[in-house]
Design brief:
By secondary structure, this protein is of the alpha+beta class. Helices cover 38% and strands 26% of the residues.
Length: 128
């Protein structure tokens, strides 16, 4: 395997680990492969409770992925205000939101034809 060339499944697992490591909330995986003319194969969507946590999630994802497979995002957008940060790993795009911004833009609703998988995390299962 070449440096930086991991499978999508491995990349997704590492991204999810990075989110979980800093207790990201409401993690969802959207599989876009069956939809025509999409820009990527998967969206991973999660949210944090503040600018600080959104930045921590982004940093944790970058560190986890870089350490394991020596890959980095092709592009990152939105770190200036940390309300919605988009991380583009080409075939996998990660959206890290603050909760109210996620509700406003409703990415899951816009991509309603995608296969939708809620990721059960230790954070979600321990909070009531």
């Amino acid at each position: 395997m070449q440096k930086g060339k991991a499978s999508a499944d491995e990349l997704i697992a590492l991204i999810l680990q990075g989110i979980e490591d800093v207790k990201g909330h409401d993690i969802v995986l959207l599989d876009l492969r069956e939809i025509e003319n999409t820009v990527c194969d998967y969206f991973i969507i999660c949210n944090g409770t503040s600018n600080t946590q959104v930045n921590a999630i982004v940093g944790s994802i970058q560190k986890t992925v870089s350490k394991a497979i020596k890959d980095k995002p092709w592009h990152i957008e939105g770190q200036d205000n940390s309300e919605w940060v988009l991380m583009d790993y080409v075939n996998v795009v990660v959206h890290v939101f603050q909760k109210q911004i996620r509700e406003f833009y409703d990415i899951e609703g816009l991509w309603g034809d995608a296969k939708f998988t809620e990721i059960e995390s230790s954070v979600n299962s321990t909070q009531n």
